[in-house]
Design goal:
- It is built from 13 helices and 16 strands.
- It is an alpha/beta fold.
- It has one domain: TIM Barrel.
- Strands 1-2-4-8-9-10-12-14 form an eight-stranded parallel β-barrel, surrounded by five helices. The protein has a two-stranded antiparallel sheet with strand order 5-6. The protein has a two-stranded parallel ribbon with strand order 11-13.
- Strand 9, helix 7 and strand 10 form a beta-alpha-beta unit.
- The longest helix is centred in the middle third of the chain and has 15 residues.
- The protein is globular.
Length: 379
């Protein structure tokens, strides 16, 4: 087995009342995608889907077709983003709930808890919500952790659920944001075993560089601190780490202080100058620590948040399926000494069209992104 490729999956492709209120009637991720504009030479926008069109994820036929495309490409399963804000409040839950209730598609899955606040700029640079930035704030409590576990127990027991060493894989987008994460994990492990599971395999997502270290120390995007970021997740009880090298690669390529200036400019009236060549950046995406047994690197086919953020973001140009194949081959080098269960690569992502970060068929490359995965993983 070369790798277990698990694709992160965004459910925001169907209208919900909250998005109608905050970003306009009928808003979905497609709203951003259709309105995107090219900002520099070689910048391809808007991106246009082909085989599946501008789909609605409440259509079971669409979900079946997605699963077939993924399976044919050698992807093991989808990792559905799960928006649980606390006190039982959820958003965008219907597609996954329908997958769970219907038993279809018969394709493996797991869950990534997207435990971040929603602000009036979470999905689009402008919002009808004018009074302050906060729309929904995360709420944590031990009582809510218990309720959250039981809400997901049917999923954990589903035969399709992805496991590591027999334990359901549960990913957390912002692991360090959970107050007393060790107690949360201990409680869920206790509940899992009390309800017939061998435990939960907890995986925390983290970048391997940032303007601050996990303890709050200013690091100004230091490029040699991946071990600090990874250990900060493992030390609070997580079994493994999903690693992202995007910020570190920018710091190496552009220089730490240039990156800091760009980040500042996104939040000011200064124009952005963050148009970056894909191949140049990917030279620095992975680090030696990605070879740790309990680190699961990410596969980045492309990256372009301009549909959501306009010019106030970094974006990659000149990506292609051929270059993505090189990325996959590079990532595989970090799996050589890992046990089969831990040879995991998280594809970032299956359908993040608003971040120019997807592998579904499109007008420019057709099935090229999927073929790139198939050529390396299945051949």
């Amino acid at each position: 087995m070369k790798a277990r490729v698990i694709a992160l999956y965004l459910p925001q492709f169907h209208p919900i009342p909250e998005n109608d209120k905050w970003w306009g009637r009928g808003f979905t991720e497609w709203t951003n995608v259709k309105n995107a504009k090219p900002l520099c030479k070689g910048h391809v926008q808007p991106r246009v889907p082909t085989d599946l069109g501008y789909y609605n994820l409440l259509d079971q036929d669409v979900r079946e077709k997605q699963a077939k495309l993924a399976k044919d490409a050698g992807i093991e399963g989808f990792c559905y983003y799960h928006y649980w804000f606390g006190n039982g409040r959820q958003l965008l839950e219907r597609p996954f709930n329908e997958v769970l209730a219907s038993g279809k598609p018969d394709f493996p899955f797991c869950i990534c808890w997207a435990n971040h606040d929603w602000t009036n700029k979470s999905w689009k640079k402008t919002s009808t919500q004018k009074n302050g930035e906060m729309i929904i704030q995360m709420q944590y409590s031990m009582e809510d952790h218990v309720n959250h576990f039981f809400s997901l127990l049917p999923a954990f027991k589903d035969k399709r659920y992805i496991t590591v060493n027999g334990k359901p894989l549960f990913a957390v987008w912002a692991p360090r944001n959970i107050p007393n994460a060790k107690a949360f994990i201990e409680k869920w492990q206790e509940l899992a075993k009390a309800n017939g599971l061998p435990g939960i395999h907890f995986v925390g997502y983290t970048a391997n560089a940032n303007k601050k270290l996990p303890d709050g120390t200013i690091s100004m995007y230091a490029t040699d601190k991946a071990h600090v970021f990874y250990k900060s997740v493992l030390d609070i009880g997580f079994d493994a780490v999903i690693s992202s090298g995007l910020t570190r690669a920018q710091a190496v390529l552009q220089g730490r202080f240039k990156l800091a200036w760009n980040v500042f400019s996104y939040k000011s009236f200064f124009p952005s100058r963050a148009c970056i060549d894909y191949s140049d950046l990917m030279k620095y995406y992975y680090v030696n620590e990605d070879a740790w047994e309990n680190v699961y690197p990410t596969l980045l086919p492309q990256w372009d948040r301009t549909p959501r953020a306009g010019s106030k973001t970094e974006y990659l140009i000149n990506s292609s399926p051929e270059k993505f194949q090189d990325t996959i081959l590079d990532a595989l080098n970090y799996l050589n000494d890992k046990s089969p269960e831990h040879r995991i690569l998280f594809l970032k992502a299956w359908n993040e069209w608003g971040e120019g970060n997807y592998v579904e068929p499109d007008e420019q490359f057709g099935h090229g992104w999927l073929n790139a995965i198939r050529n390396i993983i299945k051949e």
